[in-house]
UniProtKB/TrEMBL annotation:
Residues 1-22, 43-62, 326-355 are annotated as: Disordered. The keyword rRNA-binding does not apply. It comes from Nocardiopsis flavescens. InterPro entries: HTH_LacI, LacI/GalR-like_sensor, Lambda_DNA-bd_dom_sf, Peripla_BP_I. Signal peptide: none annotated. PROSITE patterns: HTH_LACI_1, HTH_LACI_2. SUPFAM superfamilies: lambda repressor-like DNA-binding domains (SSF47413), Periplasmic binding protein-like I (SSF53822). It comes from the Bacteria. Keywords: DNA-binding, Transcription, Transcription regulation. This is LacI family transcriptional regulator. Gene3D superfamilies: 3.40.50.2300, lambda repressor-like DNA-binding domains. Residues 23-78 form the HTH lacI-type domain.
Length: 355
């Protein structure tokens, strides 16, 4: 093997040794045999394309390594666009649609335009959407797509890409969210205060900090009353009506049936309620249900839903403020807003034997 070929293979090997490691501008420069400034200039879409041999090597190296140029913080400072990229899992989810609208409102108040991209809550789509927005030179990102242990957020921090997380957090990036643990605690305590002891939880997806916090609050409230829930009564799910229906079937078909359910999302709670009513159960007489978020549908249902109200406007405004006015060293980079319990007709004391 020729020496040059071996060197190119070694560089590719360095970039591919860890599949989670994304190739950098330095990898491209080494493979092409040029400086990083040359790589930056050749791959900058604002610069007319060069036909030089060096430029051809840079493009070939970038393609070979799978490198995509990013608008890092330095380039953002050089040429701001007064545009913020917003990543949400999907806009068919009412919570995410509300979040985007409130982020857009907060951006507009600061003289910025919000551009949205959806990811389907898939990590590979999140990367692609973020890269696409950064290539359009947005001034920063607001992400409602954070997943526990997601290496992509660490990459954004390492690259110096301005970003904040909203509704979810990874515990490291600047974040604006509701106090999910407190909300889960208050929701479960409401059911306990009504006299329920057999309280199940439709706990949401494990990869989101919001669901994990609400589940932890639910467990804390039960533990304070000396109650350990049956393992089969704590059910992981997606944030959807269909997931709520599936979870309700599992709960209602079990050997023992709970008298109350805390669903960590309103859509999921609606799915639980739908299944219970179709089976002829009385809500709240046979089954009390609490949701989370207080979406507009919650108080417009034929049986209005007890839920936890999340201050979306305040959370979105905090997220934009953290992005555009980053906290200094030693300043708090996570802002948390408390939720509020909204009791409605879907909860009541459990029926006694004579009821």
């Amino acid at each position: 093997m020729r020496k040059g070929t071996r060197a190119m293979t070694d560089i590719r090997g360095d970039a591919a040794a860890d599949p989670r490691r994304r190739p950098t501008i330095h990898d491209v420069a080494r493979l092409a045999g040029v400086s990083t400034s040359t790589v930056s200039r050749v791959l900058d879409p604002r610069v007319p394309p060069s036909r030089s041999p060096a430029a051809a090597r840079v493009r070939s190296a970038a393609d070979s390594l799978g490198y995509t140029p990013h608008s890092i913080a330095a380039s953002l400072r050089r040429q701001g666009t007064e545009t913020i990229g917003v990543l949400v899992p999907r806009l068919t989810d009412t919570v995410m649609a509300i979040t985007y609208e409130e982020v857009a409102r907060a951006c507009q108040a600061r003289g910025y335009f919000a551009m949205v991209a959806t990811t389907g809550d898939r990590p590979e789509s999140e990367r692609a959407a973020a890269d696409s927005l950064l290539r359009r030179r947005v001034d920063g990102l607001v992400l409602s797509t954070a997943r526990t242990g997601d290496p992509f957020l660490a990459e954004l921090r390492e690259r110096g890409t301005p970003h904040t997380l909203v509704l979810r957090t990874d515990g490291h990036s600047p974040s604006s969210l509701g106090d999910d643990e407190l909300g889960g605690y208050l929701a479960a305590r409401h059911l306990l205060d009504l006299g329920h002891r057999d309280v199940a939880c439709v706990a949401g997806p494990a990869h989101t900090s919001s669901a994990a916090g609400r589940r932890a609050g639910y467990l804390r409230a039960l533990a304070e009353r000396g109650i350990t829930p049956r393992p089969e009564w704590v059910i992981g799910s997606e944030f959807s009506m269909e997931a709520g229906e599936e979870a309700a079937r599992a709960l209602l078909d079990g050997d023992a049936r709970p008298t109350a359910v805390f669903a960590v999302n309103d859509n999921t709670a609606v799915g639980v309620m739908s299944t219970a009513l179709r089976r002829g159960l009385d809500v709240p007489g046979d089954l009390s249900i609490v949701g989370y978020n207080d979406i507009p549908l919650a108080d417009r249902l034929p049986l209005p839903l007890t839920t936890m109200r999340v201050p979306f406007r305040d959370i979105a405004a905090d997220a934009v403020d953290l992005l555009l006015s980053p906290p200094g060293e030693g300043e708090e980079s996570v802002r948390v807003r408390p939720p509020t319990l909204i009791p409605r007709a879907s909860t009541a004391p459990p029926r006694g034997p004579a009821d």
